[in-house]
Amino acid sequence: LGVIMSTFIVGTLTYYALQIVGIHLSYLYALLFGALISPTDPIAVLSILRKVGVPKGIETLITGESLFNDGVGVVVFSVILTLLGAGHGAEGESGGAMAVAQLFAQEAIGGIIFGMAIGLIAYYLLKSIDEYSVEILITLSLVTGGYALASHLHTSGPLAMVVAGIFIGNQGRLFAMSERTREHIDTFWEVVDEILNMILFVLIGLEVIIVNFDSKSLIIAILAIPLVLLGRFISVSLPISLMRLRKTFLPYTIRMMVWGGLRGGISIALALSLPAGEERDLIIKLTYAVVVFSILVQGLTIGKVAAKIPTERIE
């Protein structure tokens, strides 16, 4: 829900902000920017929050949100990109709305069901073997083969992998892996994560070289930063305010989730995947500005923000 809200809020604000400064970007492309900038990357934030001593509940909220944010964000991005490729609405509003609902259901629900299915298969394979080297290969096959098969079936690969990963990370770790296997699998995937992040940010650096930031583009890119933060604030505070009717949240939850919602690799990767054109160049500039601000400013100050939380509240 938060990703969808953020997509429409950020997309709408970006659309009208660009109109004000004299730049035309279609509403669907503005929504596309909203979709790719909504997923969060909490890895760096969580290590900082643990050092400060923020309650486990905040860590769980940020981690859990980011898991499904990535999957849902990619689904929404794919749906909007498909609409752009199909001419967005040539069959009329009702037909277009039905097509959007059908495509979203196929990607999202199909991805969840497929993820549960392959997660269950991997679980039984892991349970039948007690050899960590083979079990590592099973998890690797689950990710690579499962993602490829999900894409072939026109379901969401990222969402399927999230569901399968949660299943293996909980049931699989408890009932299908030995302690030795758990240690080796954790180490393997930590290394893979570091390598892939390194490759991604090298590609980001290479892409920056060919992005032309003139004065007008710089102003527009900087303008996107408060719009994204505002969208983040609304998409976080509204659901939490509603859930407070039934559940108790710490007073500073919204503040920590808004400022701790860093944007990272997934946003850049989606922006770089867009087809060549003026819209792609503009969206890349907006995305780079938000991600750089997110990493350098939010990432470097989140510890200070968390440290200002009264000690008695943490306890």
Which short descriptors sum up this protein?
mainly alpha, Na+/H+ antiporter like fold, 81% helix, disordered C terminus
Rg: 20 Å
As a percent range, the share of strand residues is: under 5%
The poorly predicted ranges are: 88-94, 311-315
Percent helix among the residues? over 70%
The ordered string of helix (H) and strand (E) elements is HHHHHHHHHHHHH
The major beta sheet can be summarized as:
none
Q: Structural class, from helix and strand content?
A: mainly alpha
Shape: globular
Please report the total strand number as a whole number.
Answer: 0
Which topology does CATH recognise? Na+/H+ antiporter like fold
The overall average pLDDT, rounded, is 83
What CATH architecture would you give? Up-down Bundle
The figure for the number of domains is 1
Count of DSSP-assigned helices? 13
CA(first)-CA(last) distance? 31 Å
CATH class equals Mainly Alpha
What does this structure look like?
- This protein is mainly α and 315 residues long.
- The protein has a single domain (2-314), classed as Na+/H+ antiporter like fold.
- 81% of the residues lie in helices and 0% in strands.
- It has 13 helices and no strands.
- The longest helix is centred in the middle third of the chain and has 35 residues, at 93-127.
- The model is unreliable at 88-94 and 311-315 (pLDDT under 50).
Question: Short summary of the structure?
Answer:
The chain is mostly helical. The protein is built from 13 helices and no strands.
